[in-house]
Amino acid sequence: MKLEIFRTLWGYTATKAQALEELLEAGFDGMEARLPMTASERAEFAAFLRANHVSYISTVFSAYDVLPEQSATVDEHLLDLDKKLAWAAELSPRFVNLLAGNDRWPLAQQVDFFGRAMDVARKHGQVCAFETHRARSLFNPWVTLELIRQLPDLRFTSDISHWVVTCERLLNDPQDDLSAFVERVHHIQARVGYDQGPQVPHPAAPEYTQALAFHQQHWEAIWRSQENRGYQVSTLTPEFGADGYLHHLPFTNVPVADLWSLNVWMANTEREHFRRFSGASTR
């Protein structure tokens, strides 16, 4: 199995051409970015991806952005998803990373939504990985594990930093058995969270050694599971981001670290981590 590392365009404000130049220089293998919402933007992006032979992971939100419309029903989420998966097909993504549902729904509604969402994905011939994310249905590991019990065909994007802050602890207690989830992870978003937030100021800082180690143990468990499932390629996106995630100094609004440098550090670190993992797994 090999590791392919994708660059997130979350918070990026320069051109896609510049983003491509930077990611190639840093040794990345492709882009993960939001699905454009207008036909002209999709056509332009699709042409860019084809012309430059860029591998693309499409990020899609159901009803309607990162934070869902609170009044939107299960049916409205599914209609929105149906429309957006058709749009995503225009860009021929590797797969769709989907932030779906609403954390306020009772379990019966969650089960109904995800069962029907998988049907919508099959209708469009899209591989969909449902991302663990606060404010969405998969905000909590225990809800997610119950969904797996009832819908074992679900596949996931693991951004476990969200669960760390939701549960206010590293999920490394012997009672925190996430194996049923790990066995269904399709894609990793590599951001290091801690008990009071979804993003440490810098993952190399010694005060976050334990947090980094926990996340790496989780990612390694996913790699091991993917190897056992016959994966030839594992995908990972370093996803340190802006939007309140990146720490700033009080009164000055100066960021404590450069966002691109954080993601390059994470990419280099996980590339080396994967080399060590691959070496150990072949011995």
Automatic annotation (TrEMBL):
Q: Identify a single GO molecular function assigned to this protein.
A: isomerase activity
> Which residue numbers delimit the Xylose isomerase-like TIM barrel domain?
21-190
The family database entries (Pfam families) matched by this protein are listed as: AP_endonuc_2
UniProt keyword annotations, A-Z:
Isomerase
Name the SUPFAM superfamilies on file.
Xylose isomerase-like (SSF51658)
**Organism domain of life:** Bacteria
Coiled coil, from the record? none
Protein name from the UniProt record = Sugar phosphate isomerase/epimerase
